[in-house]
C-alpha cells in the first residue's frame, strides 16, 4: 500500500491598512469623487494610456483605499473582475466606485465600458457590494462622466 504525503500551502487573507479610513460626513458626490481621482491619478500617463482603478468604501461610505486594477494602451485596458473583488473582500469593502480614463478626452462611455460595468454590477449583486458609480476621466482636469449621474448604471444599483 502506497501512502502519499501532500503539502498544502496556507492562504492568508490579510489587509494591513497603513492609516485609518478617510472619514466622510456624507457620501461623496460624483464631482468630489472625480476631484479625488484626479489628485491621485498619474498626470504623466492620463493622456497617454488607459488605467482602471477602484475606490473601496465601507458601509458608511468612508474611503478604505484605492487600487489600480489594470494599465492598458491608448484606447483600451483589461479589467480583471477577480482582482476587483479579491481586493474588495480582503478590505471588507461594502461599496465600490469604478474609474478609468479616456486619453482621447471623450468621456462618453463606450460599448465596452457599458459591458464591463454590467458585468461588475452582476458580481456586486451576488456579493452584496454596492456599485456606487463608474467615473470616466478626461486628461482635462474637471472633465469627466459619472455613469451614475447619467443614468447608465443598471437598475437597482447605487
- Number of DSSP strand runs: 5
Which geometry do the CA atoms define?
globular
Number of domains: 1
Just name the CATH architecture: 3-Layer(aba) Sandwich
Helix-strand makeup class:
alpha+beta
Number of helices: 3
User: How would you describe the oligomerization state of the chains in this entry?
Assistant: single chain
Rg calculated over all Cα atoms: 17 Å
End-to-end CA span = 59 Å
The biggest sheet amounts to:
5 strands, mixed
Give the helix proportion (percent range): 10-25%
Proportion of residues in extended strands:
15-25%
Q: Which strand order spans the largest sheet, edge to edge or round the barrel? A: 2-1-3-4-5
Mean pLDDT: 90
Q: Give the ordered list of helices and strands.
A: HEEHEHEE
What descriptors fit this protein?
five-stranded mixed β-sheet; 158 residues; Cytidine Deaminase, domain 2; alpha+beta; globular; 22% strand; single chain
Describe this structure as you would to a colleague.
With 158 residues, this protein is α+β, with helices and mostly antiparallel strands. The chain has helices at 30-40, 81-90, 111-127; strands at residues 51-57, 63-71, 95-101, 130-137, 144-146. β4 and β5 form a beta hairpin. It starts with 29 loop residues before the first helix and ends in a 12-residue tail after the last strand.
